[in-house]
Amino acid sequence: MMKNNLGIYIHLPFCKEKCSYCDFTSFCADEKTQSRYIDDLLKEVSCYRSDTEQRDISTLYFGGGTPSALSPFLLEKLFRGLPKQYFSAEEITFEMNPESVSLEKLSILKEAGVNRISLGIQSFADRTLDLLGRIHSAEEGVAAVHHIRQAGFKNLNVDLMYAIGEGYPVEESVRNLVKLQPDHISTYPLELYDHRPLSKILQPVDDALSAQEFSFIHDELIANGYVRYEVSNFAKPGFASKHNIGYWERTDYLGLGVSAHSLLGSHRHSNSLTLAAYHDALSRGDKPIEERVELTREDQAFEMLMLGLRLTDGVDLSLYRERYGDLSKGQKKSIMKFRDQGLIDRRKDRLALTPEGMNLMNLVLVELME
Ligand SMILES: C[S@@+](CC[C@H](N)C(=O)[O-])C[C@H]1O[C@@H](n2cnc3c(N)ncnc32)[C@H](O)[C@@H]1O
Ligand code: SF4
C-alpha cells in the first residue's frame, strides 16, 4: 500500500433492538437523536479536513451498529454532507441487517457510490436467531441477499456466527450460506460478555467444539471456491476486503463517530464512548478523542508482525526491515523453532503462519514479542 493511502471508517451506532450477545457501541434511539448524531459526525469530518485533503482515500467503510437502520432521509443527509473526496475510494462498504434492507435504501446507497455490502445474517436457523435476540428470520436473510443482488451489488459479504452452543450447530447454516454464493464470508465465534443477557442462559462452548465447527466451515468454504485469506475471513478470488487488509497491513485509517479508532502515523486514538460525550466535545469545537497513544518504534514493529501474521500471505519481511531494521536474534531463533514445528512458513521474503500455526497464534506471538 502507498504511504499516502488512508482508509476511513464511519461508525453509525444505531440498532432497532439490541442483540442479547452484543457488546459493540450501539444504541436504540429516536430519529431526532439520530439526526443530531449525523450533524455531529459531519462536524467531526470538518475537524479532520486538513488531515484528509492531501491523502488518497483508498477505502471507505460504514459500520455499526446497524448503518441500514437509518431512515432514507438520514442516509441522504449523511451522503450529501460528506466530502466528495471520500467517495473517490476504490472500495466503499456499507453494513446492513436483513430487517432493514429495502430496495429504496439500496438505491440510495448505489447512487452514493457504495460498491460493497456487508450483511449480518449470523445464522440460518430461526431458533438460533431467536436465542441471539436477532429481529430477523432466516427467510428474511435469504430475501435480503436477493434484494442486494437485484439492486446490482456485485460485492457482498455475509457475517456468520459459530461456536454458539451445544444444540445450536452451525453446519446447516454453512450449507445454506454457500448456496447463496456471497463473494466474501466473515466468521465470528460467539463471545459471551458477563454484562450481556445471553451470558445468563448460555455456557461458553469448549475449545474442541469451537475448533470442530471452524474446521467444518473452513473445509466447506474451500470446497466451494473460497480462499481463506485471514484467520477468520474467506473470499472468492479477487474479493478480499481491501479495507480490512488495510488494518492488517497497518495502513493509516481515520475512524469517525462515537467509539471509533484511528491509526495515524505513529499514534493511535479512540473516540468518546457515549453519544453525550461525543456531542459535547464537538459542540465545544474539539475533536471527540478520549484516548491517545503514541507508539514507539518497537510497538509499531510488533504490531506489524502481530497484525500481518493474521493474513495467510503473512508479513513482507523486506518491508519490515526497511521500516524497523532486522529481526532480533531471539526472534530469528524462535522463527526457526516454529518452522521446525510446522507452525511458521518462510516463503521468499514473507513470513506466514501455517494453518496449524493460526490455531496457536497467541503462543507464537508471545514468543515473537520477547
Ligand atoms: C458490530 S456487528 C455490526 C453488523 C450488524 N449490526 C449485525 O449485527 O449484523 C459486526 C459483527 O460482529 C459480530 N459480533 C458482534 N458481537 C459479537 C459477539 N459477542 N461474539 C461474536 N461475534 C459478535 C457479528 O457477527 C456481527 O455481524
Ligand atoms: S444489530 Fe449488530 S450492532 Fe446491533 S446489537 Fe445486534 S450485533 Fe450489535
Structural notes for this entry:
42% of the residues lie in helices and 21% in strands. By secondary structure, it is α/β, with parallel strands linked by helices. The chain folds into 2 domains: 5-248, TIM Barrel (Alpha-Beta Barrel); 297-369, Arc Repressor Mutant, subunit A. Strand 5, helix 7 (171-180) and strand 6 (184-189) form a beta-alpha-beta unit. Helix 1 packs parallel to helix 3, helix 1 packs across helix 11 and helix 14 (329-340) runs antiparallel to helix 16. The model has no long low-confidence stretch (mean pLDDT 96). Iron/sulfur cluster (SF4) binds next to loops. Residues 21-24, 64, 66, 95, 97, 120, 122, 159, 161, 188, 190-191 line the site of S-adenosylmethionine.
Taken as a percent bin, the fraction of beta residues is 15-25%
CATH architecture designation of the largest domain: Alpha-Beta Barrel
What small-molecule ligands were found? S-adenosylmethionine, iron/sulfur cluster
Q: How many helix segments?
A: 16
The dominant shape is globular
SS elements, strand count: 15
Short summary of the structure?
By secondary structure, this protein is α/β, with parallel strands linked by helices. The chain has 2 domains: 5-248, Aldolase class I (TIM Barrel); 297-369, Orthogonal Bundle (Arc Repressor Mutant, subunit A).
Q: What key attributes describe this structure?
A:
single chain, 370 residues, alpha/beta, TIM Barrel, Arc Repressor Mutant, subunit A, 2 domains, nine-stranded mixed sheet, three-stranded antiparallel sheet, 42% helix, 21% strand, globular, binds S-adenosylmethionine, binds iron/sulfur cluster
